[in-house]
Amino acid sequence: MELHDLRYFVAVAEDLHFGRAAERLHMTQPALSRQIQALEAELDVQLFQRTKRSVKLTIAGQTFLEEAKQILCHTEQAIQITRRVARGEVGQLRLSFTASALRSVLPEMVRMFRDRYPDVQLTMNERCTNDQIIALQNHQTDVGFLYLPVSEKWLTLKPIAEEVWLVALPRKHPLANQKQLTLSALAKEAFILHPRQEGPAFYNQIIRLCEQAGFYPNVVQEVETSQTRVGLVAAGMGIAFVPEHLQTVGDTEVIYRRLSGSAPQLELAIAYRRDNFSPVVQQFLHIVEERIQKSVRESVA
Amino acid sequence: MELHDLRYFVAVAEDLHFGRAAERLHMTQPALSRQIQALEAELDVQLFQRTKRSVKLTIAGQTFLEEAKQILCHTEQAIQITRRVARGEVGQLRLSFTASALRSVLPEMVRMFRDRYPDVQLTMNERCTNDQIIALQNHQTDVGFLYLPVSEKWLTLKPIAEEVWLVALPRKHPLANQKQLTLSALAKEAFILHPRQEGPAFYNQIIRLCEQAGFYPNVVQEVETSQTRVGLVAAGMGIAFVPEHLQTVGDTEVIYRRLSGSAPQLELAIAYRRDNFSPVVQQFLHIVEERIQKSVRESVA
DNA sequence: GTTATTAATGCTTTAAAGGTATTAGTCTGC
DNA sequence: GCAGACTAATACCTTTAAAGCATTAATAAC
C-alpha cells in the first residue's frame, strides 16, 4: 500500500463518484477504478458498496477513511516539521557564556534570535571558559562565549569582541581620585588576580604588562570570580582587574578606572564544535555575524 | 512522497549503510541510493550526512526518522483495524428487545456474542415492538427482538421462537387450583388485555380464540405492559395473559396456568434493516442462527 | 423503449523504479 | 606510501506498475 492509494481512496470516498474524483486527481476514471480495486484486494476488505450507478462507503470503508485522512495529514506535517528543523526554525540551542559576555554582547544577540526563531528552545548557562570547553566536548552545550586563546582543534572559534579590563580600587584609595591612571602607578599595590591555572595566558599577560611598566606585581590572592575579587577590593585587601562590563554591577565601596597606555585585555569569541552541523547553530551564527557587522559599522561611523 | 520512500529511508537510517539496508530491502544499493537522493530532493532537505565511506543522519534526518516510523506504524494499524471492522470484530451493536425476549433467548445469545467479539461495544434497550420498528427506521438501533407480524418491507425478519402466553390468575381465584384449564372455563372472567392499537393482530387472535371457545371476552382494562397487567391481576381486577418467560418474575399473589387446547401465542423474531450491511450485525446474526439450530436439535432430541 | 449516466474491462502507452557494470573517493594494513 | 578493500555515486539498460483510450454493461430517468 502506498500513499497515493490513500489519496485516491480519500478522493473517491469524499466524492462518492469515480468520474469526478478522477477528474479532481487529474487522472482518468478507469485508472482510478482499478487502483481502488487493487487496494481492496490488497486489504482484502470491501471499502465501497457499489452498484453500476452509485458508490457508497462500507462500515470498514468509513473506518479506513478516518485513518487514511490522519495518515495523509501526519505525512504532510512530517514534511513541514522536517523542513523547519532543516532551516533551524525548530530545535534547541544551548548557550554557555562568561559572566561578562552576559553583560555585553550576548543579550542583544539572544533577543534577535528569540524574535526570529521563537520555536527554538533556548537554554543558557554561565560557565567559565574552561568549563565551556568541557561542556562543548561532552555535547552539553552548543555554542560558547568564551575568552581566547583556546587551542582545541576540534572547535571553531570566531573572535567577536575586544574586552578591556579595568582596575578596581577601593573608594578611599589615594589613587581613586586621579583622572589619568597608568599601570606603573600601581607598582606598590597588592594585586588580587584570578587563579593562574584558570587562564594562564591572561595571567601571563598581566605579569608581562607589569614588567613592561617596570615592576613585578605583588599578588596577594588568587580568586576565582571577578565578583569575588571586587568584594575583596571593597574589603580593602588590594586592587584587581575586572572586565569593563562588570562595572555596572555597582558596589559603592569600589571604583573602576580605565588604565591609560597599555591595559590588560581579552578577546571574547564564540566557539562551537567543528562537527556540529545543527541548523539552529548555523542560524545563531548568522545572527552573531550580523550583529558584529553592525557593531563594526557603528564604530567606524 | 510515497510510503516506500519512508520504508527505504527508515532502513538506511537504521543501518546507516546503503549496501546492507538495500540487502534487507531485497534490492540493490544503487537503486536505494537513488531513491534516497530523490526523497531528499523532493523534501529539499538533506537527511543524511554522507562521506564516501560513511553515512549518518542530519538533525533534520533524525526528526524525519521519528515521523516516518510513526507514519509507517500508523499505516499498519490502520490496515489491521480496518480488517477487524470488516470482520465485525470491532464496532458497535445496538440491540432492542421486548421484556420477554430479555428473559428467554436473548441472554445466551448476548453472552455468546460478548465472548466471541469482546471489542464490539454493545448497547441494549428494552422497547415494545412498535418502538423497535421506529428505532430501526431512525437508525437508533441495529437489531430488534420483536413480535410478528410486522409488515415493513424494508426490514428483514427472521422468526426465532414461538412464545406461548399463560393465564395469570389471582392466587385466591376458584380456578387457581384446577390442574387442567381451558379457555372456555374463563368465559365469565374479567379480562385485562394490552391496548388494541399496541398489537392489533395479537389482540384479534385472543378475541378469535375466545369466540372459538364460545364466548366474547369481557375486557375490563387495556393496559400497556405485562408487568402492569400482572399487578392488576394481583389486585384482583381480573385475569390477564402474559408471556411464559415472565412468570419467573414472581408475585406471590399471582399464579400462572398454561391453557390446555388452543392458547394465545406469539412469534418472536429478529428484525434488521435490509440496507444494514454492518459486519457486526452479520456476525450477530450468525450467532443467533447458531443458537437457534442448537435449540432445534435439543427439542428434537 | 430510448437515452444518459456511471463503473468496469481490454488493450496500449508511459513513466517510475530496479538491475548491472563501473567509477571515485576513503580507510586499513603491510 | 602504496595496494587492496570498502562504499556511495553515476551511467545505461530493463522491468514493472500505473495511466490513458476505447469500449462494455448495467441502471435510472424520461
Characterization of the model:
Chain A has 301 residues and is of the alpha/beta class. In chain A, strands 3, 4, 5, 6, 7, 8, 9, 10 and 11 form a nine-stranded mixed beta sheet that branches. In chain A, strands 1-2 form a two-stranded antiparallel ribbon. Chain A folds into three domains: 84 residues, Winged helix-like DNA-binding domain superfamily/Winged helix DNA-binding domain (Arc Repressor Mutant, subunit A, Orthogonal Bundle), CATH 1.10.10.10; 103 residues, D-Maltodextrin-Binding Protein, domain 2 (3-Layer(aba) Sandwich), CATH 3.40.190.10; 104 residues, Periplasmic binding protein-like II (D-Maltodextrin-Binding Protein, domain 2, 3-Layer(aba) Sandwich). In chain A, a hairpin with a 4-residue loop joins strand 1 and strand 2. The two termini of chain A are 65 Å apart. At the A-B interface, helix 4 of A face helix 4 of B. Chain A binds a DNA duplex (30 and 30 nucleotides) through helix 3.
Radius of gyration of chain A, whole Å: 33 Å
End-to-end gap of chain A:
65 Å
Secondary structure: helix percent of chain A: 40-55%
Estimated structural class of chain A? alpha/beta
Apparent shape of chain A: rod-shaped
**Count of beta strands of chain A:** 11
CATH architecture of the largest domain in chain A: 3-Layer(aba) Sandwich
Taken in chain order, the helices and strands of chain A follow as HHHEEHEHHEHEEEHEHEEEH
CATH class of the largest domain in chain A: Alpha Beta
CATH fold description of the largest domain in chain A: D-Maltodextrin-Binding Protein, domain 2
CATH superfamily of the largest domain in chain A: Periplasmic binding protein-like II
User: What assembly state would you assign to the polypeptide chains in this entry?
Assistant: homodimer
Mind describing the biggest β-sheet of chain A?
Answer: 9 strands, mixed
Percent strand of chain A: 15-25%
Question: Runs of chain A with pLDDT <50, length 5+?
Answer: none
